[in-house]
Design brief:
The protein is of the alpha/beta class. It has 8 helices and 8 strands; from the N terminus they run βαβαβαβαββαβαβαα. An 8-stranded parallel beta sheet has the order 1-8-7-6-5-4-3-2. The mean pLDDT is about 95. D-xylitol-5-phosphate binds next to strand 2, strand 8 and helix 7.
């Protein structure tokens, strides 16, 4: 099943609750929350208090993407805030296994995010312990950047690798540069959770954008 995960990063930060309600009503499956610390990436966004409040505004899972150095220090904050999914960057931690274990021990879904230049092989020893892998298709830090075409081969390689494990986990989430035009080919490459910020919140009609992305993804139909 393909899931649409609107990224609030491109929404109006003074009206987050409205943004969440709008995409939920339009059929979004997950709410993607980008947490940036000003160190791992050159931008600052939101902290656990915002996640805690968003949790009271939606029934959808909150997918918290931690673009922070030393994620071990903040994972407990986001667990307490009610994050349903938490992804951490492989590049940002010295103890990936420990951090993933903390998230899973709390009964939440754990993901590892990889920057565009980080090879899949860093997941070799941990792939089976992950609920999802988040492949960045732009350099993290801001929305509305152009999709890096080489990401297709990385998605396909991860899909082949996972098929060799003969399971449906970890699921493959892609983040950055997604739009209506490239959605079908991304789904055919193997993407299953589609994060979209600019393509939804900067569209003339964000509800319609969610519906069209979902329809395009479903029509492309996975593999
Ligand atoms: C970028 C964030 C993304 C971002 C994607 O660092 O992780 O989630 O919102 O935005 P678009 O869809 O605009 O490329
Ligand atoms: Zn993100």
């Amino acid at each position: 099943m393909i899931q649409i995960a609107p990224s609030l990063l491109s929404s109006d930060f003074t009206r987050l609750a409205e943004a969440v309600r709008l995409v939920e009503e339009a059929g979004a499956d997950v709410i993607h929350v980008d947490v940036m610390d000003g160190h791992f990436v050159p931008n600052l966004t939101v902290g656990p208090r915002v996640v805690e409040l968003l949790k009271t505004k939606t029934a959808l899972p909150l997918d918290v993407h931690l673009m922070v150095d030393r994620p071990d220090e903040v994972i407990p904050w986001f667990l307490d805030a009610g994050a349903d999914w938490i992804s951490i960057h492989a590049e940002a931690t010295r103890h990936l296994h420990r951090d993933v274990s903390v998230i899973r021990a709390a009964g939440r879904k754990a993901g590892v995010a990889l920057n565009p230049a980080t090879p899949l092989v860093v997941l070799q020893e941990i792939l089976r312990d992950l609920d999802y892998v988040l492949l960045m298709c732009v350099d993290p830090g801001r929305g509305s950047q152009p999709f890096i075409e080489a990401s297709h081969e990385k998605i396909r390689a991860l899909r082949r690798w996972r098929n060799d494990l003969s399971g449906d986990r970890p699921r493959i989430e892609i983040d950055g540069g997604l739009n209506l035009a490239n959605t079908p080919s991304l789904v055919r490459s193997g993407a299953e959770i589609l994060v979209a910020g600019n393509a939804i919140f900067n569209a003339p009609d964000p509800s319609d954008a969610v519906r069209r992305l979902k329809a395009a993804a479903e029509e492309a139909g996975g593999r």
